[in-house]
């Protein structure tokens, strides 16, 4: 698609960011939703651009700035407006921008040309270079360099594209240092940008918050958090509001980081707003960097508490010293991959020569109870016990089943049910691949351990903690292996309380867990 000549001109006394925003809205209405999704192209609303711009503290007379995903140049314009207002000494700005959509280039140019005119009236010299090359392919070599280049940038600001890349994509291969699974392009933008900063240079990005945890972003976190120091973070508590004009459902975060020595005692500001309307009236919390990221850990998970309740829960969980493996408890992913196992899966029980085991799917698992069998299309509730199927079956003993995925509508990320071996008479059971199962490999989980650990996973305490660092709908075994949990004795005590009451309702579970850790008042 080719856009015809643009007849949108700046209004009298219009700010460059407002003009760029008008250009962006016009362009957005000219392209399909499919085009926007395939390009990961969602332009930054001006209130968000202004908040991001306000994060910069640079006071230099001249600045070299990079915008690796320029779009309609709203971010660049908002940034320069803010810097000009705060720093009366500023006299020269050099912008390098990237935009690969050929139909958008003319919009970007009009916005940047008007910015140049606006700055000239304020006696600030301005030059820009607008690349139509791919930012990643142009700059991935920076991931391999150890020393700073004289061509590096004072500030990098971006709302990068968001979409998954194939493992054999040329960009994935070019940035292999950042890849530990299927990558999302935004994290590659962030990782490369962190390597293009001058000493004390600033990086300000708005992205999904999924990079904070998960195995797919592990290599990225290891590089990024060793390269730059987090300074400020802003979270949006509403998925719908941030990019509402593009109908984007996404948990987003603004992150500012600085190329300076990593300091665990650095004070980090975390602010949050519901969305755009209250963006300049946020709630604000202060943390030490070490409270948010354990730099000694392999995973380097970023925790993002935004209120007193989350801070109290984070303090409790980080005080625990154990994880699952310390209690000889393991977590794995269900071995039954349905499309490879159709020959073994059956809908109905039958006697005779066919021996069947129960098969548990994600839909069978609810908070603190297992619903089986259920009638669901293509979700057969039995699996054949044969020599050729035994490699994907589990011995029938006590387990906890945990959903690997939640939906965006689920109030909880963690949904787990206890499974006791007397549930089925079979010697084996089947667990489908969309479930994690928790077990003791060489031994048996006691009933009190199953009830107690399952109660903790389902509790509002644990769910709140999990959402402090998990910004997507996936519940990975890797994250759960790394999570801190109470002592085995504490887990058993919680389990025994639930078993004695014989009440597995979530109301009773939360009452017992909150009371045990003296957290009753926090959840009122």
From TrEMBL:
The keyword Protein biosynthesis does not apply. One of its GO terms (biological process) is methylation. InterPro entries: DNA_methylase_N6_adenine_CS, MethylTrfase_TaqI-like_dom, N4_N6_ade-DNA_methylase, SAM-dependent_MTases_sf. Residues 116-240 form the Type II methyltransferase M.TaqI-like domain. It catalyses: a 2'-deoxyadenosine in DNA + S-adenosyl-L-methionine = an N(6)-methyl-2'-deoxyadenosine in DNA + S-adenosyl-L-homocysteine + H(+). GO terms for molecular function: methyltransferase activity. The keyword Cell membrane does not apply. Keywords: DNA-binding, Methyltransferase, Restriction system, S-adenosyl-L-methionine, Transferase. This is site-specific DNA-methyltransferase (adenine-specific). Its EC number is 2.1.1.72. It comes from Flavobacterium sediminilitoris.
């Amino acid at each position: 698609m080719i856009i015809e000549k643009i007849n949108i001109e700046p209004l009298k006394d219009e700010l460059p960011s407002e003009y760029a925003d008008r250009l962006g809205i016009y362009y957005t209405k000219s392209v399909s939703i499919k085009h926007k999704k395939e390009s990961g192209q969602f332009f930054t609303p001006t209130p968000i651009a202004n908040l991001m711009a306000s994060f910069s503290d640079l006071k230099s007379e001249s600045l070299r700035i990079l915008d690796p995903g320029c779009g309609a140049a709203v971010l660049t314009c908002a940034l320069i407006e803010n810097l000009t207002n705060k720093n009366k000494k500023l006299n020269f700005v050099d912008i390098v921008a990237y935009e690969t959509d050929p139909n958008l280039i003319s919009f970007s140019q009009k916005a940047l040309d008007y910015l140049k005119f606006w700055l000239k009236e304020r006696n600030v010299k301005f030059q820009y270079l607008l690349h139509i090359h791919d930012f990643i392919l142009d700059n991935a070599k920076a991931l391999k360099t150890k020393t700073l280049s004289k061509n590096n940038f004072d500030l990098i600001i971006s709302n990068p594209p968001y979409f998954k890349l194939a493992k054999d994509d040329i960009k994935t291969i070019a940035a292999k240092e950042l890849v530990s699974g299927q990558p999302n392009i935004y994290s590659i933008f962030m990782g490369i940008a962190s390597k293009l900063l001058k000493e004390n240079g600033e990086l300000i990005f708005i992205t999904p918050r999924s990079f904070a945890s998960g195995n797919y972003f592990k290599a990225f976190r290891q590089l990024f958090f060793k390269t730059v120091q987090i300074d400020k973070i802003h979270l949006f508590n509403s998925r719908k509001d941030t990019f509402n004009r593009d109908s984007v459902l996404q948990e987003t975060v603004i992150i500012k980081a600085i190329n300076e020595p990593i300091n665990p005692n650095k004070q980090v500001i975390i602010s949050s707003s519901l969305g755009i309307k209250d963006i300049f009236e946020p709630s604000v919390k202060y943390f030490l960097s070490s409270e948010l990221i354990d730099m000694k850990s392999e995973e380097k998970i970023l925790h993002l508490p935004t209120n007193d309740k989350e801070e109290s829960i984070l303090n409790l969980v980080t005080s625990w010293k154990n994880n699952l493996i310390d209690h000889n408890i393991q977590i794995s992913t269900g071995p039954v991959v349905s499309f490879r196992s159709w020959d073994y899966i059956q809908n109905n029980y039958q006697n005779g020569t066919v021996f069947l085991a129960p098969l548990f799917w994600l839909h069978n698992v609810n908070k603190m109870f297992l619903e089986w069998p259920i009638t669901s299309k293509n979700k057969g509730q039995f699996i054949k016990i044969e020599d050729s199927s035994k490699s994907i079956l589990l011995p029938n003993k006590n387990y906890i089943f945990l959903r690997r995925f939640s939906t965006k509508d689920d109030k909880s990320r963690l949904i787990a049910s206890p499974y006791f071996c007397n549930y089925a008479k079979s010697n084996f059971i089947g667990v489908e691949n969309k479930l994690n199962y928790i077990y003791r490999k060489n031994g048996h989980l006691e009933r009190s351990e199953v009830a107690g650990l399952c109660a903790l996973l389902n509790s509002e305490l644990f769910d709140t903690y999990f959402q402090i660092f998990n910004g997507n709908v996936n519940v990975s075994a890797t994250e759960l292996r790394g999570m801190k949990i109470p002592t085995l004795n504490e887990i058993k005590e919680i389990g025994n309380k639930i078993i004695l009451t014989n009440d597995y309702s979530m109301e009773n579970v939360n009452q017992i867990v909150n009371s045990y850790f003296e957290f009753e008042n926090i959840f009122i």
